[in-house]
Every structure is written in structure tokens, then in C-alpha cells.
Specification:
The structure holds 2 protein chains of 2 kinds. By secondary structure, chain A is an all-alpha fold. Chain A is built from 8 helices and no strands. Chain A is globular, with a radius of gyration of 18 Å. The chains are: A mainly alpha, B alpha+beta.
Chain lengths: 181, 383
């Protein structure tokens, strides 16, 4: 469907009446951005697609609960992230963390290699992270959750969140560095 | 640029479109939800509906019994067949002396034995009933055996009867031209142009403007033969065999992200049996006929046409259908015993024609046939 002018109020009210055209309009408007988020959490396309599908079904079922006091995109994004977390938990791989290792400062700007990398390459590298570490990394790096919030959400300690984030970042940059060497 | 900022930026700007299968999956899931919502809403009502159907069936049976009883009752005393319709003209009563002895001897066996009364047509019919009644053993004891007095009384009564005769609804007294009161047997050909509907949840929901699937008005036809018998001028029985009866239901359906035409087509052979009630038209006009009856059909073929892709549904639908018929017909005489009929019929199936398949059991997609038919027939009436 060619994307017509997106009238948010109209689309929301029509979605509340289960109007399929409006649901499709809403989906197509946000699908690309939300799919990227799903990919960043899932690290693989099939799982990202499952998360996206499940998340939008929740969106359409819960659209009646959406209050127009915040941004619609933010509300959908929250559902997508929570769905991703649930998904990873269901796979019982949320505690799939990186082994403890001494931090090596200085790697974070290794040749600024990341600047010349494309989306697909970075996706490939993100996919190599253990799921638990990737989850923490994305929650903090992409969605801006604090370590305290992450700790509450995932029922881990704040320290675990911090250390997993740092290790994930380091590992990711190493991957990227190796690719450009 | 900081790695984390770059990472966030690349996910927010670059991205990629998800495959179409994701939206299809969402739609499927929502459809399943919608179907389940409809089912769960429908389930508590099922019992009530079934009870109502049973009550309707009982009421219909009672009506049919009353109808048949009425026909039989009227047929017993109806002298219609004994009186030539074409002879219904005028009547007159000319007082003249009556031979008492002959009256006594014959016991007023026939109304025509009144020397002073010449009767034909409906009047004659009434008089004939009267004459038969008074000669019946049950009636006789009411009259004392006083020949002269009795003769005078009956003669008076007959003359009164002739004067107060009120023709049946719509029929004029003797106007020089015969009224149209078809009697006896008739047979001919019939055709229907039918606005057909498959009554089920999908069709009903498709009538709501905010629904995704649109149920479209669909048209079919019936072709067949018709035969019947009129019992007197009012009641009759009619059988109609539709050799080909096409029922269809079209939808404009949103499937996998696009609209497609979905046409369900069912071909039946139907046999209907109806009781008819005629109201003779004014003067030269024809008959107005009301009918009430039942039909039964055998499924010959069932297909679904999805944008030109035709699949057979014969296994999913019941081989038998049955239901009610009610309608109106105007019958116009064409001369030489021929008549043309035009009318309208409503048909409602009572049977759930959906037999179920490996995905949907029969009770979750209860489907009935219904139609509004414009009917045409041409037939030959025997006398």
C-alpha cells in the first residue's frame, strides 16, 4: 500500500474500531523503524520478524489503552522492546552473558572503523553477541534505559548490567576492528 | 563520532523493510482473534436459536396441517367441478306453480328441479349445495313431513339465497364474460431470477460498512417445470421441479494485503411443494395467488472462484438442503387454457449446508440458503 498522508488521530481512532485499513496504515508507517529495533535485539532476521509480528498484534489489541498524552512512536517502541525482552526470556537465553574479562580501555575508537561500516555489517556483528549481553547493550545504547532500570527489568544486579554492557561494547568494537583490518 | 551515538543513529536511520510475510502473519492472527470473538459471542445464543428454530418448525407444521385441512374441507363441499365455469351468466327466478307431488317424490334431489328457477354459475352452485343438504338423511328429520308447508319454506329460502348471493372476493356477478377461475390440473415451465444469499456470520458481518470483507448482492436463477391442481376456485397444490437452481454469494475480500473477488456458487436441483390460495381478480383480470410451502434440494456442484481460480467445495457442503417458501403470483389468462404467471417468492433454508472440513467444523460456520426470487411461468390449464 502506498503510504498516504499519515493522520495519526484518524488512524488511532480507526484502529480502535478494528479497521483493517487503518491497522495496515499504522503498521506500514512504523514497520521499518520497529523492525530495526527488533533486529538489534534479536540479532537475526527470523526472530526479529517474530518479535515484530507479536508486537504489532499487541499494539492493535491494546490501542484502546493508548492515551494521546505521549508520542505514539514511543508507545509502540516500548511494546516492541518489551516483546523482544519477553521473546528472549522465553528462549531462556536472557542470562546468556559474556564471560568476565579485564576491560581494555582504548579500543573504543579503534581506527574509527565503525564509521565506514554499513548497516548490514553492524547487524551481522551484533548478531554474534550472546543474547543476554545484546539485550543489555541495546537497552542502554539504543533505548536509553539506565542500568538501574535494566537491572529491575531483567531482575539482575546493576553491576551485572554495567559489566555486560561494557563487555558487549568492547567485543562489538573488536569485531568491527577485525573486519576492517 | 562516539561509537554508541553512531550505533543508535544507524539503527534509527538505515533500517530495512520487514518482509511482507510479517504483515500477513499479523492479519492472520487478527482474523483468528476476530473469528474467535464472533464465535464466543455466538456460543451462548446457540441454544436459544436452536429452540426458536424448533418452535418455528412446529409452528410451520401446524400451519401446513391447517392449510391441508382447509383444502380438504373446502374440497368436500365444493361443487365447482360440477358446474361449467363458462356458463356463469345470469339467473332469474320466475314464480310459477309447482307440482307438489313431484317435489315430494323426488325430495328436491337437484336444485334444477325447481321449475321456476333457472340457475347457472355460482348461484347454481350455492343452490346445489342447499339442495344436497336438505336431501341428506341428517337434514330430513328437521323438516316435518308436511309436504306443502315444507315446499313453500324451501322455495322461499332458495329464492332468498339467490337474491342475497354474495360473490367471492373480487368476483363480479355475471357480467357476460367468464371470470377467471382456473380449476383442474395445470402444467408448464417456470423460471426464476433470484437474489441469493448465503446466511452465515461472514455474510452478515460483510454487510456492515466498517467491515473489511464486503458481502455483495448476488444473483442466480432457477429453471424447471411446474404442475399443480386447483381444488375449486380458491385452493390448490403446486409442485415445482427446478432442474437447475443456481445459488451464489459474492464477496469483495481483503486477503494478503489486497482485495480479491470471492464468488461461492452452488448448483442444486430443487423440488418444492406449496399450498396455493387464489383471489380471483376483478372482471377481466387474472388470479392473485398466495403460496406457502416447502422445498428440498440436492446439491449438484459447489465451487469457489477466487479471482478466476476455481476450486471445488463439494466436500465441504451438505448434499441436501430444505426450507420454506412463501410468495405471491399474478396469473394472467392467455386464452385456450394457457396462462402466464409472474410473481415473487421468498425462500429460507432451514438446513446448515456447511458440512465442515478439516479446518472448520460444521457448527462453527453455520450457513443457510436464502433468496428472493422473481418468478415467471407459462402453463396450460385443463378444465
Amino acid at each position: 500500500m502506498a503510504e498516504a498522508a499519515f493522520n495519526e488521530d484518524y488512524v488511532i481512532s480507526s484502529c480502535r474500531k478494528n479497521d483493517r485499513r487503518a491497522q495496515e496504515m499504522l503498521y506500514r508507517h512504523f514497520a521499518k523503524k520497529m523492525y530495526s529495533i527488533c533486529l538489534s535485539y534479536a540479532g537475526e532476521r527470523p526472530m526479529a520478524q517474530d518479535i515484530l509480528q507479536e508486537a504489532f498484534i499487541k499494539v492493535f489489541k491494546k490501542i484502546g489503552q493508548y492515551k494521546n498524552d505521549g508520542s505514539l512512536e514511543g508507545w509502540i517502541r516500548k511494546i516492541v522492546v518489551n516483546t523482544a525482552i519477553d521473546h528472549i526470556r522465553k528462549r531462556k537465553r536472557a542470562d546468556d552473558y559474556l564471560e568476565a574479562e579485564a576491560d581494555e580501555p582504548g579500543l573504543q575508537t579503534q581506527n574509527q572503523a565503525f564509521k565506514i561500516m554499513g548497516y548490514n555489517e553492524i547487524m551481522q556483528q551484533v548478531g554474534k553477541l550472546p543474547e543476554g549481553a545484546r539485550l543489555i547493550f541495546n537497552l542502554h545504547a539504543v533505548d536509553g534505559y539506565t542500568h538501574r532500570e535494566i537491572a529491575q527489568k531483567l531482575e539482575i544486579t546493576e553491576g551485572t548490567s554495567k559489566s555486560q554492557f561494557n563487555r558487549a561494547r568492547k567485543l562489538l568494537m573488536e569485531f568491527i576492528g577485525n573486519m576492517n583490518l | 563520532m562516539d561509537f554508541l551515538k553512531w550505533y543508535r543513529h544507524i539503527f534509527e536511520t538505515a533500517g530495512e523493510e520487514p518482509p511482507e510475510s510479517v504483515w500477513e502473519g499479523i492479519q492472520d492472527e487478527l482474523d483468528v482473534e476476530a473469528v474467535w470473538a464472533a464465535i464466543s459471542e455466538d456460543l451462548p445464543r446457540k441454544g436459544k436459536r436452536r429452540k426458536m428454530l424448533h418452535m418455528m418448525a412446529v409452528a410451520a407444521s401446524v400451519l401446513a396441517l391447517i392449510g391441508v385441512g382447509t383444502i380438504v374441507m373446502f374440497n368436500i363441499g365444493d361443487p365447482g367441478t360440477a358446474i361449467p365455469v363458462q356458463s356463469a351468466t345470469r339467473y332469474s327466478i320466475t314464480p310459477s306453480p309447482v307440482d307438489e307431488a313431484s317435489v315430494l317424490h323426488t325430495g328436491l334431489a337437484e336444485a334444477s328441479e325447481f321449475p321456476g328457477v333457472r340457475q347457472t354459475g355460482p348461484v347454481a352452485a350455492e343452490l346445489s349445495i342447499h339442495a344436497r343438504a336438505v336431501t341428506s338423511p341428517a337434514f330430513m328429520p328437521l323438516y316435518p313431513r308436511q309436504p306443502v308447508a315444507w315446499k313453500a319454506v324451501t322455495q322461499k329460502q332458495d329464492a332468498m339465497l339467490a337474491n342475497i348471493y354474495v360473490p367471492p372476493f373480487g368476483e363480479k356477478k355475471a357480467e357476460g364474460r367468464p371470470v377467471n377461475a382456473a380449476r383442474g390440473y395445470y402444467a408448464g415451465m417456470s423460471g426464476h431470477l433470484a437474489n441469493t444469499w448465503l446466511i452465515n456470520n461472514k455474510t452478515i458481518q460483510g454487510l456492515r460498512p466498517d467491515e473489511f470483507t464486503a458481502s455483495l448482492p448476488s444473483f442466480g436463477y432457477n429453471l424447471g417445470i411446474i404442475a399443480g391442481k386447483n381444488f375449486g376456485s380458491r385452493f390448490g397444490l403446486r409442485a415445482e421441479l427446478s432442474l437447475v437452481s443456481l445459488t451464489r454469494q459474492d464477496y469483495n475480500e481483503y486477503l494478503h494485503g489486497k482485495y480479491i473477488n470471492n464468488s461461492m456458487r452452488f448448483t442444486y436441483s430443487n423440488l418444492s411443494l406449496s399450498a396455493t390460495r387464489s383471489f380471483t381478480g376483478n372482471g377481466r383480470a387474472g388470479n392473485h395467488i398466495l403460496l406457502l410451502g416447502a422445498y428440498s434440494g440436492i446439491l449438484r456442484n459447489a465451487v469457489q472462484d477466487l479471482n478466476g481460480e476455481v476450486v471445488s467445495l463439494a466436500g465441504d457442503y451438505s448434499q441436501v438442503d430444505y426450507g420454506f417458501i412463501t410468495g405471491y403470483e399474478y396469473e394472467h389468462p392467455l386464452g385456450n387454457g394457457l396462462a402466464a404467471g409472474m410473481g415473487i417468492q421468498a425462500r429460507l433454508g432451514l438446513n446448515n449446508i456447511f458440512a465442515g472440513n478439516e479446518i472448520v467444523p460444521y457448527y462453527l460456520n453455520s450457513t443457510r440458503n436464502a433468496s428472493i426470487n422473481l418468478t415467471f411461468s407459462i402453463r396450460y390449464n385443463t378444465r
